[in-house]
Write a structure and sequence with these properties.
heterotrimer, A mainly alpha, B alpha/beta, C alpha/beta, A: mainly alpha, 2 domains, 11 helices, 2 strands, 3% strand, flat, C: Rossmann fold, 6-stranded mixed sheet, 10 helices, 21% strand
């Protein structure tokens, strides 16, 4: 869990790293939506070229992308297989029982594969170039308009940041409690399903107890440091808007125009 | 049965094949005799905790072997069949009260014995025995462990480990965060277990006064290497060694040194404070 | 007479789920610039007292005056501007994943401007010698470093009183000493008052005065030197008898003519060697 959330950020100090996190998150979502509009070979080619440029600009090591794709590889392959085996339309290349393999099926499968790769790549670029704290600040900036409908944006973003802060602490505790229970003869993850589930009780209860204790003490500490729920606070981090952020919005518009022109 | 612990060329690396790779244990060779009381000292991050986790195979070496009595732990040791080893080696972690989980103190204590397949009758005997040892009153046995005070929880957690009748007991700073009374209780208990039941005690500690007073042998770790294994008086009388390994001087040694400087010389070195006091008084009485 | 910075009068407090008072008719005062240790076994009411002083819980009866301000529901912000607390477990007081932002937490709550905040955070981190760890994750630091970061967060708001709630009890002896020395340095430099809950003898010897609690009642309010003279069995109050004191008592028991007062290591060694050379 620790590596999943924290291990991905690489402080390479590239131009992409320095972007405003809110802009980065927004544009990342925008790109994901745009991916769904691409429907031709050339539009996918343009998107891929764009991502390759981004990878280059962000100084991200290529192997991080494989790391991002590997855990999802079975889901990707499965969806592609379904797409190939069960879509109709186009010329039939091969037919067996109720299964038709068609040219359209293969084309759709290829596009689907590209979608997966593009979406995973862009989100990997986001997590490589933005530390978790910036992501949480970025999200809270984007949520700002929700203040109008009385959504507690401040509290929500502090909540995210505290949750992130406790990830390494709880990870360490999980490891220690697991080791302690192993020493008392627990075999995590062996035996039948019921036995396996049962073996996690001696891990989960202490973790819950500890999380509540942390929460209890932390709330006292926060109060003593002058925190009051729902009252106004200022922020140490002030994310500036740079020219590069403005340029990136224009690039996004340009890319959209290109994609729409290249659509079938 | 011979319950010696033997490390042969043991090396362990964290996060191998990543940029964060870090050698936690570097070619460790050591022998711990059965029935001894051994303290492991050294700075935070020197490899003490990693070392002790190898003794009950929570970690397995990248290279080298560890023998614990009849068991051998190698890099490719199978994760199954470790139960017998873990029954033999009890492990008390830092802040062990974190591991409590059962509905009652009694259930928590019987958890280990049940896992190791002890029978019911034996377990109820054990509960009585270990709760007496750690000073947990019978009236607390049916209470939830979470209702107890911090000091009591610590004792229950230690009872949890003692309940499996370990022949080797490893403790990582068992007195951290306790008041002086609680500290003394636990240290005295360890000494008792060592002397009366011949349990091997392996203690990781920063409290040099305790290390000096209670242990037969001291192991000093530094940057993943074992840099010293010797008798406590060899280590604590050598000011240069203490400086080199960045260790505190026990108060008894400090006073002895201060007295020596002013030509008040005792015949023997006394690492136990009470013995030192008696020695001083006897010498004053003689003249 | 010196300025009183904390004045507690007939304070009483009872937890809802208990039938006994956790704080029992407590009265004492602390002067500006003093270092006062509060000692007593676990459960004697030390932490409850601190929570009362910071307005984190409300007393049932009695008065607390902090820097000439009597605590009530409306002035808690002002009270908390005057008091900074360093807690026992550093991990339970951090809210942020970077050191600098954690130090800034109190300032953010007080709505400081960003630019001013940056300056104060840098300065506070320099004072505790943790500036180079500014961008680190506090969870990954050593215990001693974590407490220094916590201390930086406390001094950032320029409090008049620093409360240590067993702040060094989880540290190794070396880190303990370092933190205590650091706090003493800051105390002298900024004319701070320090109120410390502790079991540590070294720390008690630093203090000007010791308040001993038992079951919520004050047993002693004396200088550390007098504490050992006035108490028969300090072990009953969760304290360790220092070596020199054990030796002094044993010498007295054996009929030696030694001072009736507590003396430290150097003094007792001097006494022994002088006695010996006279023979």
């Amino acid at each position: 869990m620790d590596n999943f959330i924290f291990g991905r950020y690489l402080p390479m100090g590239s131009i992409i790293h320095k972007m405003n996190p809110a802009a980065k998150i927004f544009l990342c979502f925008y790109f994901v939506i745009l991916v769904f509009f691409a429907n031709s070979f050339f539009s996918y080619f343009a998107m891929s070229l764009f991502v390759i440029i981004l990878i280059f600009l962000s100084k991200s090591p290529i192997k991080m992308f494989f790391k991002g794709i590997m855990p999802l590889i079975w889901i990707i392959l499965f969806t592609i297989l379904i797409q190939i085996l069960f879509s109709s339309g186009g010329d039939i290349i091969y037919k067996i029982w109720i299964i038709n393999i068609t040219t359209l099926g293969i084309k759709n499968a290829m596009f689907l594969f590209m979608r997966f790769i593009l979406i995973i790549s862009i989100s990997t670029i986001l997590t490589i170039t933005t530390d978790p704290l910036e992501i949480s600040s970025g999200i809270s900036i984007l949520l700002n308009p929700l203040k109008k409908i009385k959504f507690p944006v401040e509290t929500f973003s502090l909540m995210i940041s505290i949750a992130l802060r406790f990830v390494p602490t709880l990870t360490d505790e999980t490891k220690t409690i697991m080791d302690a229970q192993r020493s008392r003869g627990v075999d995590f993850g062996s035996g039948g399903l019921i036995k396996r589930i049962k073996s996690f009780i001696p891990l989960l209860i202490p973790l819950f107890v500890s999380a509540f204790k942390h929460a209890d003490s932390l709330s006292i500490a926060m109060e003593s440091r002058g925190y009051k729920i729902n009252s106004k606070r200022t922020h140490y981090q002030n994310y500036k808007w740079s020219n590069f952020d403005t340029i990136s919005f224009f690039v996004a518009i340009l890319l959209s125009i290109i994609i729409f022109m290249l659509r079938n | 049965m011979d319950n010696s612990i033997l490390f042969k060329n043991v090396t362990y690396k964290y996060q191998t094949n990543t940029p964060f790779q870090h050698t936690a244990l570097d070619n460790i060779n050591l022998k711990i005799k059965p029935g001894s009381f051994v303290s492991i000292v050294g700075k935070t991050g020197s490899g003490k905790s990693t070392l002790i986790k190898h003794i009950n195979a929570l970690l397995k070496p990248n290279s080298g072997t560890i023998n614990v009595g009849e068991f051998t732990i190698k890099p490719n040791t199978n994760n199954k069949n470790l139960k017998k080893l873990r029954r033999k080696v009890g492990m008390v972690f830092q802040f062990p009260e974190q591991q409590l989980f059962a509905n009652t103190v009694k259930e928590d204590i019987s958890f280990g014995p049940l896992n190791f397949g002890f029978n019911k009758e034996k377990i109820s005997n054990i509960i009585n025995k270990v709760s007496n040892l750690v000073g947990i009153d019978d009236s607390l046995l049916n209470k939830s462990p979470f209702e107890l005070s911090g000091g009591q929880q610590r004792r229950v957690a230690i009872a949890d480990v003692l309940a499996t009748n370990p022949e080797i007991l490893i403790l990582d700073e068992p007195t951290a965060g306790l008041d002086p009374e609680g500290k003394k209780f636990i240290m005295t208990l360890l000494k008792q277990l060592n002397e009366n039941q011949n349990i091997t005690i392996i203690l990781v500690s920063h409290q040099m006064d305790d290390v000096a007073k209670y242990s037969d042998e001291v192991i000093v770790m530094q940057d993943g290497k074992l840099v010293q294994q010797c008798y406590p008086d060899e280590l604590f009388t050598n000011v240069n060694l203490l400086k080199k390994y960045d260790l505190q001087m026990p108060i008894s040694v400090k006073i002895n040194l201060m007295l020596n400087e002013k030509d008040f010389k005792l015949n023997d070195l006394h690492l136990d404070e009470d013995e030192l006091i008696d020695a001083i008084i006897n010498k004053l009485k003689e003249c | 007479m010196a300025d009183k910075i904390i004045d507690v009068k007939n304070l009483n407090f009872k937890y809802d789920d208990s039938n006994k008072n956790a704080i029992n008719d407590l009265s004492f005062s602390i002067n500006k610039g003093e270092w006062v240790s509060i000692i007593g076994k676990n459960g004697s009411g030390k932490t409850t007292l601190i929570n009362l002083l910071d307005g984190l819980i409300k007393s049932n009866k009695g008065k607390i005056i902090v820097d000439s301000l009597e605590i009530n529901n409306k002035n808690l912000d002002e009270i908390r501007d005057k008091i900074g607390i360093v807690f026992q477990n550093p991990l339970n007081q951090f809210v942020s994943s970077t050191v600098k932002e954690d130090v800034a937490f109190g300032l953010e709550n007080r709505q400081y401007e960003t630019s001013k905040m940056h300056k104060i955070v840098d300065r506070s981190l320099m004072e505790v010698d943790m500036f180079k760890y500014k961008d680190n994750n506090p969870s990954k630091l050593s215990g001693g470093q974590q407490q220094r970061v916590a201390l930086a967060g406390v001094i950032a708001i320029l409090p008049k009183i620093i409360i240590l709630d067993e702040s060094t009890s989880m540290l190794d002896p070396k880190a303990k000493k370092m933190i205590i020395n650091l706090i003493n340095k800051l105390r002298i430099k900024n004319n701070l008052t320090v109120l410390s809950i502790t079991h540590d003898m070294n720390e008690i010897q630093y203090s000007d005065r010791v308040i001993l609690l038992k079951d919520g009642t004050m047993i002693k309010n004396v200088s550390p030197l007098r504490l050992f003279n006035e108490l028969d069995n300090v072990e009953n109050y969760g304290l360790e008898v220092p070596f020199a004191e054990k030796l002094r008592l044993k010498l007295q028991e054996n009929g030696f003519n030694i001072s009736n007062d507590y003396i430290n290591n150097e003094e007792i060694v001097k006494w022994i060697t002088q006695y010996y050379s006279k023979m």
